[in-house]
Amino acid sequence: MPKTPSWLKRLNPRAVWRSGRKAIADWKSKKPRSIKPRTYKPIHLATLIVMTFAALAITTAAAWIMWDAAQVPAKLITSPDLAVRAAQLRVDVIRNILAVGAGTGGLIALFLALRRQYVKERVDHADQEHKNRTADDSKHDAAERRVTDLYVKAAEQLGSEKAAVRLAALYALERVGQDNAEHRQTIMHLICAYLRMPFLSDGNGTMHHSGQLRKQEQEVRATAMSILEKHLRYEDLADEDGKVFPVGGASFWPGMEVNLNGAELDRLPFHMCAARNLSLENTRVLGSTTLRLFFSADGIFSFSGAEFGGVVDMTRAFFGKALFATGAEFKGRLAANKATFGLAIFQDAVFHAATSFHGIHAKSLDMTGARASYRAGRQHVWPEGFDLPPRPNGNNDELGRIRNLRDPS
After folding, report:
1. 42, 139, 307, 319 — which has fewest CB within 10 A?
2. Chain centroid, CA 232 distance in Å
C-alpha cells in the first residue's frame, strides 16, 4: 500500500478542524489587554514648513494672476483721470493680494486650532473611559472581595457546633450563589461536601446519636437538601435546533454537578430536577429516593454500590449518556417506567422488592449478575429480553439471578 504523502496528511479535514478549534480556544483564553488613553504626537517641524511654503506659493500664484489681470497698458492712459483710476486699481489689487495671503494663513491657523481641539477631545474622552474602566474594575474587585469574605465566613460557620449557626451558613451560601452565578458550582460542591460528612461526628470519628443533637443535625441536613432541590428544579424542557435542555425560573441553577458519594441521607427528593452529573456511589439513602422526571442530557448518573432503603422512583427520568448501578442494592420498590438511558449498567445489582422497567428506553442494557426477589413474583416487570426464571425446586434462596434471554449462555 503506497505511503500517504505528508502534504496530504496536513490537509486532513479532521486535523484542520481540531487545530482550528484549539486556536479558537487559545484565543478565547487570552486575557484582554488593558486599554490605556491614546496619545498624539505633536506636528513635525517639517510639516509646518511645508504648510508655510504651500501658503506662500498659493499667495504668490494668486498675486501674479491678479496683478497680471489688473495691468493697464500705458498707451491707453490719455488723461489724468484714467491715470488716477489705474493707480487705484493697483492699490485694490495689492489689497486683495494681502487679503489672499491673510486668508491662506488663517486657513492654516484654523486647521491647527481644529486639530488641537480634536486631539484634546479625543484624549479627554479616552482618559475618561480609562477612569471609568478603572472605577468599574475597582468596584468589581471590591464586590469579589465581599463575596469571597461572605463565602469564607459561611464555610467556617458550617463547622460550628451550634445548629443555628450552621443553618445561617447554608442560607448565606445560597444567597451568595443566587447573586453570583460564577460561584454556584463551588457552593454546590460545598453543600454536597457537608452532606457527605459523617453524621454528627465530633472530628475524632466518634458518632453521636443523642436525641437533641440528632434532631438538630437532621434539620440542618434537611435544609441543605432542600436548597439543592430548590436550585436543581426546572420548570419545563425546551427544544432548540434538535437539542433538549431544561429551563427554569430565577432560582434554577443549570449545569450543576452533584456529588453525594458516600453520604448517608434520610431521603433524596430530586423530583423534576436537572443536573449535568449526579453521583451517588456508595451512598446510603434510608428513606425514599425520588428521581421522577430527572433530566441529564449529556451527563453521567452513577449509584454504584449505593444502598436504597425505601422506594426508588425514576419514572420518565432521562439520562442521555449513561447510568451505572454496579453493585447497587434496592431494598424498596424500584420504578423506572418509561425512563430513558443512553447506557444502563445494573451489573450485580440486587432488587429485594418489586421492580418495574415498563416502557424503558435504553440503547444498551447490561444486567449481568443482577439478582431479584422471588417473593415479588409477577410484580416484576423486566425490560424486553430479560426475566427472572422460576425458583428451582429445592432452592430456598430468596434471590434469583436475572436471565438475559438474548444470551444463549
Report:
1. 42
2. 16
Residue 330: pLDDT over 60:
yes
C-alpha cell at 37: 488613553
Q: Evaluate whether 173 touches 191 at the Cβ level (below 8 Å).
A: yes
pLDDT tens-digit readout, 339-380: 998 899 999 999 999 999 999 998 889 999 999 999 888 889
CB neighbourhood size of 105 (10 A): 15
Instruction: Give the side-chain half-sphere CA count within 13 A for 147.
Output: 19
Strand partners, 285: 265, 308
Alpha-carbon distance of 325 to 306, in angstroms, equals 8
Q: For residue 275, which amino acid is it?
A: A
Helix axes 163-179, 80-157, angle to 10 degrees: 150
Grid cell 508655510 is found at 52
Stronger pLDDT, 175 or 6, i.e. the higher one: 175
Between 184-196 and 80-157, two packed helices, what is the crossing angle to 10 degrees? 0
Q: Which 3 state secondary structure label does DSSP give 24?
A: helix
* 406's grid cell: 438474548
- Write the single-letter amino acid at 386: F
The helix or strand, by DSSP H or E, that contains position 170, with its residue range, turns out to be helix 163-179
pLDDT digits (tens, 9 = 90+) for 283-312: 999 999 999 999 998 888 899 999 999 999
Q: Is the pLDDT of residue 161 over 70?
A: yes
Provide the Cα torsion 386, 392, 395, 401; round to 10°. -10
The secondary element (H helix, E strand) that includes residue 109 is: helix 80-157
